[in-house]
Amino acid sequence: MKKWIIIIFTFCCTAAYSQKDNSNLSYEECMSLYNAGKISEAIPSLLVLKEHYEQPDNYNGAMYYGIIYALHYYFMQIGDYSSSRNLLNDAGNLFNKRESEPNNEYIRNLLCCRGQLEVMLKNYGDALNYLNQAQVYFEEKNDYSESYLVAMMNMALSYQSNGDLLSAKIYMDEAIDQFENLHGSVFDIKDESQFIILSNYGYLYHAIGHDKEAEKCFLTIINNCKKTAFSNDTYMLACNNLSTMYMKQGRWKEGIRLLEGIDSENNERNYLFAQNKAICYLYLKDISSSVASLHEMNRYSLINIENLFSHFTGIERENYWTEISKERVFVNNLIAYHSNDNNAIRTAYDNTIFCKNLLVNSTRIMDRYISQSSDQNLKQLYKKYNGLKSELAYKSANGVVRDSLAREIIDVERSILNSAGSLGQWLVEDSKTWKDVQESLNEHDIAIEFCYTPHMDTFSEVEPFYGAFVLRKGYDSPILVSLENVDVVEDVFDNDNPDELFVNDLYSDDKIMKLSNMLWNKLTPYLNDVKTVYYSPTGRLSNVNFDVLLGEDGVMLGEKYSMNRVSSTANIGELKAKESSKFQSCVLYGNIKYDESQSDMADASSTYETFSGTEVHSGLALRSENERGKWGPIPSTKKEISNIGTLLSKKGVKVTTYEERAGNEESFKALSGKSPEILHLATHGFVIDTPQRAEGNKFVASTSVYSQKDSYMMWAGLMLAGGNNIWQGNFNLTNVEDGILTADEISRLDLSGTKLAVLSACETARGKIEPVDGVFGLQRAFKMAGVGTIVMSLWKVQDDATSLLMTQFYTYLTSGIEEHQALWKAMMDVKEKYKDPYYWAGFIMLD
User: Fold this and answer.
1) How many CB atoms lie within 10 A of CB 435?
2) How high does pLDDT run on average in the chain?
């Protein structure tokens, strides 16, 4: 059986397949076609035979496994790993039911196949779980056959992909030893399907820096492979990997010769080949070919995204996108910067706004589709899915319960995707281009999309720089400006826990001018006649208040322009299309009673009809960052919400106030689906965005989430009534919210009726920062919930100064001043009373 060909290390995409109607072939005829490299002709018959042998009276383990293996091989070849996953699941269930011995050869081999599939999905942890189990089973049975060494190779590949080269080398050596025991030297391979082990061997050699040995492996394949149906993929991978190695050595002509002419049926492979061709042509100064390959790379990537996002769960999409998004941004911006070609810059800008929005848009689009659907079963499934995720987030440390919930979430999400269908296609169709952004601008506007511009004199030596795409009304193309080395910039402003001394030093004249020269003043030539600046930060630039940077004339940007910070410049058109800020309703939270007793919490909770389903168990003792072990009252918030309520009421705005015990989590969640146009929260905020903050934190330890990025949303939130009980580990109520409103919980609410959310609390703009996807925290949560504009803070803000700033902000807002200018004027008023930037420069507005 041709097992070698499925041991591949590039990611595959889901693809449709079609064959001529050969539905009456026998098992033996199908296997003959498979062994002859004509598997596609056997697929209809194999599918019929699969159903036949699944019947109890017809079951034959060996023949059924042969069918499963052949189908799995085919699906992996064409990249249809959605079908492969379903196939392996069905087969595993059947073998467990029909075979008396749990550790049988079929299950061992299926574990190998499943491990390989998880590698394809970049779920390396899951891959190792399957492969470790396979290893245990093989060794229990003293089975050191080809299947065992296949498992060892996949283990090596999983560890290598996960960055553990030492473990990868140990398992690869074991695989090579077993191979040579069975077949002789890996450099004397006769069976075309076995070249894959040499390819993997070379891949690992290259990763650990043994390039001569790697070159020998790849050249052996290239020079001796006959490129049959069982070896053509391996040949192409060897060409690609040797090309990559030559590129790192500056051997560009040799590299491109290996890449030209190779073409796969698998779009993910073609994405990889096009990526390397684009870079190779760039350094050969063939810009037109480089840009053409870049377009080809992006086209294949979009095909893969359409398929992947329509068939795979959130955690599978997230794992894939975390890796691919970085590659796409890197290659697009590298070629755009080094070529300075307008076509490449347009492409890179489009790619930047697409990548930045993709994960958030996938949630928004699914929400929109389901809300508009007439399928009540689908709506119930989606409600169940969100409820299960809430339940998982706060379960106890019981691993069995956690695992059961996680499996149920995945099963429910797959049912949703099967019913919803085309999420990936909707995402691609919904994406914006530079032309869309330009059409949203008037002659006095400018769009600035901050980005990364890699400087790479040689292929292996990358120097990361911040950069910016600049776009105005009459431009033929965006302009890409390289700013300053990322590390140099972040040495000036970056601090995981900015205190008063740090902030005042950072925003002192000398430091702020230095930062301004790095991040802004190179953009000055494009700002003639500009009145409104729409800008979107990237990465850790999200922690900078650009409004208070200084122009070359020493004047703060907020005084020179209307500075509009946006999640992405792709959203400018939507922002301009919104109605003007005429508010009719407002909900205010403040003067919260954090020490409310549990009995009072239960009483207050009983006035609400629903409970979110979240269960938080006791034993979560935490300490606040002031080491008092609990959150203290904020006296100034009583006056703050009173003043704001009076100002808004005089303008005819309907105001509802929640304070003391009424300011509980139930009241906030009850706003979902009927949220006010203004939502103001004057309370404590928290963010746990570093390993140091998370270490020893029992709240963090108690949470179990669906994916790593979900955990970032769990570790940021707002304190509401009674929150000190759970914060101090004294909460033991059931069917009562705990008083900690996390970003994770907010993200699943419907706050689309809210035009303006004001988070009058500490560090509400901060969170875990991902280079492409941005900030995971409260700002992301409120955006996912559908809020239009958010006011939030970059550091721990002082109570009295914040209360004054908020009162002034609403004073200006209710007098008819545009909201961005209202916040700026309020900041300047506070500056008159409190000179230090710590008191007035911490708030930003995000559209």
Assistant:
1) 11
2) 84
Q: Which residue has the tokens 């940007």?
A: 557
Q: Confidence class of residue 498 from pLDDT cuts 50, 70 and 90?
A: confident
Are both 623 and 680 inside the same structural domain? yes
Closest by CA to 782, choosing from 738, 740, 752, is 752
Per-residue pLDDT reduced to its tens digit, 210-220 = 999 999 999 99
DSSP-based three-state secondary structure for 734: coil
Number of Cβ within 10 Å of residue 807's Cβ equals: 21
Q: What is the pLDDT of residue 345?
A: 96
Q: Can you tell me the distance from the alpha carbon of 672 to that of 55, in angstroms, rounded to the nearest whole number?
A: 49
Is 656 part of any domain?
yes
Number of Cβ within a 10 Å radius of residue 98: 15
Verify that 598 and 571 share a domain, yes or no: no
Structure confidence at residue 609 (pLDDT): 59
User: Does residue 398 have a pLDDT over 60?
Assistant: no
d(CA 492, CA 543): 12
Q: Please give the tally of structural domains in the chain.
A: 3
Separation between Cα atoms, residue 725 and residue 46, nearest integer Å: 61
- Of the three residues 67, 98, 129, the one that is the final residue of a domain is 98
- Tell the residue number behind the tokens 């990364």, with chain if given: 452
Give the confidence band of 11 by pLDDT, cuts at 50, 70, 90: very low
727-731: which pairs have CB atoms within 8 A and are 24 or more residues apart?
727/620, 727/622, 727/624, 727/629, 727/630, 727/631, 727/699, 728/621, 728/622, 728/629, 728/630, 729/618, 729/619, 729/620, 729/621, 729/622, 729/698, 730/598, 730/618, 731/598, 731/616, 731/618, 731/620
- Model confidence pLDDT, tens digit, residues 399-443: 566 667 777 887 888 888 877 767 777 777 888 999 999 999 999
Are the C-beta atoms of 11 and 122 separated by less than 8 Å?
yes
Q: Is beta strand 585-592 parallel, antiparallel or unpaired with respect to 455-458? A: unpaired
Q: What CATH number is given to the structural domain containing 728? A: 3.40.50.1460
Partners of 742 in the beta sheet? Answer: 717
Phi, psi of 111 (to 5 degrees): -60, -40
Burial of 505 (0-12, 13-18, 19+ CB in 10 A): middle
Phi and psi of 311, rounded to 5°? -125, -15
- Is the pLDDT at 264 greater than 60, yes or no? yes
Q: How far apart are CA 830 and CA 755, in angstroms?
A: 25
The backbone region for 60, taken as left when phi is positive above 0, alpha when psi lies in -120 to 50, beta otherwise, is beta
Task: Compute the Cα dihedral for 289, 295, 296, 297 and give only its sign.
Answer: positive
Asked if residue 592 and residue 570 are part of one domain, the reply reads: no
- The predicted-structure confidence for 329-356, as pLDDT tens digits, reads as follows 999 999 999 999 999 999 999 999 988 8
**Virtual torsion, Cα 91, 168, 187, 184, nearest 10 deg:** -60
Most distant pair of Cα atoms in the chain: their distance: 89
- What pLDDT, on a 0 to 100 scale, did the predictor assign at position 634? 86
Instruction: Please give the residue range of the domain that contains residue 496.
Output: 434-575
- pTM for this entry: 0.84
Residues 4 and 94 in one domain: yes
Q: Dump pLDDT digits (tens) for 554-589.
A: 899 999 999 999 999 999 988 888 766 688 999 999
Q: Is the pLDDT of residue 632 over 70?
A: yes
Tokens in use for 673? Answer: 């689906």
pLDDT tens string 75-90? 887 767 778 888 888 8
pLDDT value, residue 710: 65
User: Pick from 583, 595, 757: which is nearest to 668 by CA?
Assistant: 757
Helix (H, G, I), strand (E, B) or coil at 243: helix
Could you give phi then psi for residue 20, rounded to 5 degrees? -75, 160
Report d(CA 188, CA 796) in Å as an integer.
66
Task: Locate 681 and state its tokens.
Answer: 């929260």
Residue whose tokens read 């600049």 = 470
Q: Are 452 and 333 in contact (CB under 8 A)?
A: yes
End-to-end C-alpha distance for the chain, whole angstroms = 58
